[in-house]
Amino acid sequence: MSHPVISTKFYTGIWAGLICLTVLTAAVSYLELGPFNIVLALVIATCKMLLVALFFMGVKYISEKMTVVVIVAGLFWLFILLALSMTDYISRPWV
Amino acid sequence: MSDSTPAVATHNPALQHHFSSMHQQMEASVMGMWVFLITEIMFFGGMFCGYMVYRYMHYGAWLAGSQHMDFWYGTVNTVVLLCSSLTMVLAVRSAQLGQRKMIVIFLLITILFGLAFLGIKAEEYYLHWQRAEFPGLHWDYSGPDPQGVSLFFSFYWAMTGFHALHMVIGIGLVSVITFQAWRGRYNSEYYNPVEISGLYWHFVDIVWIYLYPLLYLVSRKHF
Question: Using CA atoms in the order A76, B193, B166, B87, what is the torsion angle rounded to 10 degrees?
């Protein structure tokens, strides 16, 4: 088996957390926070992503280390894509 | 697990001959699916990267374009997708327990949520089309920076469109799995297709988790 059987109650709890975070991010969008609107929205989105990935996709329960390496490598590659593209465009006016 | 025991002794009919155990076969399926999902992350990652760069270059146009988004369509669809992820994970759980009937029921509910998402999305697309907010084909915008705003809408249609395409594929996938589950192809020892379809479904959910704030929330008009 790929991962242990988790109780329905636990999964429902994770789902309730995801709904709460959705309500929170929608409510916070009504506030005027300047540049922190996007920061806060992305932090909440990342929390939701982690809940889905760790528990619904069972990343937390993966026993095969190679699969974890694949996931981490993929996310690192995405980080390179986004970070290096942005450093390029942000620093262009500097020269 | 049965890693050390010879496979022939406890041969499960679903065990492929090149795997030494059901456990190894499942691990291989899950890792293979993750490798595919990484290519999907790169596919959507390219569009998210483009969104970031152009948002940085045309910030005013992004603010103006965001005012044309329908907050409630996006919010309701987020909730619908999160519900579908819950029923999907419960379907996988039922498969782990070998409850054939429950797998079928949860998968059918998942399909219904998926169809509800697409229905709401279609309604939203129709509204955007009516307001002539489709760059290139049906475009009529008289506000400031029309080129930048049309760029914003291009990203909107491309990103949500590819997401919707993934939803359609997901619904097709889950329909096949539902049929196979109904025929009794899965049991607590072998449910790999249910597991990896679940991974796909949750991945598409995660894409929307990021699309929702980026398109509907961050530049919202504050009433």
Answer: -100
Q: Which residues of B touch A62 (CB under 8 A)?
A: 30
B209 exposed, middle or buried (CB, 10 Å; 0-12, 13-18, 19+)? buried
The CATH code of domain B22-217 reads 1.20.120.80
Cα B194 to Cα B187: distance, rounded to the nearest angstrom: 10
Tens-digit pLDDT profile for residues B100-134: 999 999 999 999 999 999 999 999 999 999 999 99
| Out of B53, B56, B85, closest to residue A52 by CB | B85
Q: For the residues A57-67, what does the mean pLDDT come to?
A: 92
φ, ψ for residue B188, nearest 5 deg: -65, -20
Question: Where do the structural domains in chain A lie, given as residue ranges?
Answer: 1-62, 64-95
Nearest by CB to residue B218, choosing from A14, A37, A64, is A37
Residue in this structure with the two tokens 């491309």, named with its chain if needed? B158
Could you identify the residue written with the tokens 């760059």? B135
Instruction: Say if CB B68 and CB B94 are below 8 A apart.
Output: no
Confidence of residue B14 (pLDDT cuts 50, 70, 90): confident
A3-17, A20-34, B5-19, B161-175: range with highest mean pLDDT: B161-175
Candidate from B78, B195, B203 with C-beta closest to A22? B78
Q: Is the pLDDT confidence value at B12 over 70? A: yes
Q: Beta strand pairing status for B138-139 and B133-134?
A: antiparallel
Q: Which residue of A has its CA nearest to B59?
A: A35
- The verdict on pTM exceeding 0.80 is yes
Q: Which of B202, B191, B81, B69 is nearest to A58 (CA)?
A: B202
* Residue pair B160/B121 in contact by the 8 Å Cβ criterion: yes
Q: Domain spans of chain B?
A: 22-217
DSSP per-residue codes, B142-162 = -SS-HHHHHHHHHHHHHHHHH
What ipTM is given for this predicted complex?
0.93
Contact assignment for B213 to A18 by CB distance below 8 Å = no
